[in-house]
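Field reference: sequence -> structure
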Amino acid sequence: MKISLDLVEMTEIPADSAIYVSGSDIKRILYGIDIGVAELQYAKENNYDAVVAHHPVGLVNHYKVFWQHLKQLKSKNIPGEEARAVIEEKLIGFKFGAHARNYDSIPAFARLIKMPFLNIHCPSDELGRQIITQAIEELCKKASYPTLDDVIIHLESSIPEFSKAQTRIEIAKGSSSDQLGNWIFSHGAFTNGGFTIANLYYKYGLDTVIYIHITPADLFQILSIQKGQLLITGHLVSDSIGINPLLNELENRGIEITVLGGLLR
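Structure field:
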């Protein structure tokens, strides 16, 4: 956990990451973007020392990481009061959604079989946000007016994970010849901001919002308004881009890693 925090200069474990069952002398880990009972049992039967998940499985306050959107909104000069109001409205749904979940089902099984288990979400997503943002910034330095198609070509040629994904970077709104303009890659804040946060960016002059995924309902709302463009990079591939530097660092320290569950390595 500390290694993942150090990679993005975080000092505290964020609300969407946790150590569910502690372990020590860890030499072999099983890593998956999503981990359930079957993966924990497999790890136990095959002598792994720990299991690491990307997505949280046993938390009720994980949605509080959504407040990271405030920092991103402010970076684009969105008024803080208006940004907070939009975030607080979204948090209501997340909060009561957490009430409905059986948050201890999978961690309880890990405790039962004494399998060291943790998940690391926001640190890896933040690292992925930095990597993809930097790649787009590099393109903008080379090309004065890059198009959406230029962005897709550059990302797919400069970041290896994109070439391994079954999904492609998609223009969800706009056309390939449209200029990127003023943009943001919105990621590393628990989940995407949906329609309301994208619309706030558009309202204050951004041309292009880039998410890693979006629900159909939010997409249809974005398509119904006249302004703004939307790129979708893909969930598993974008997560993998932020996860792999952590796994590389663990391997450099002599830890054997087996990956499963959609990770593109």
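Note: DSSP finds eleven helices and nine strands in the chain.
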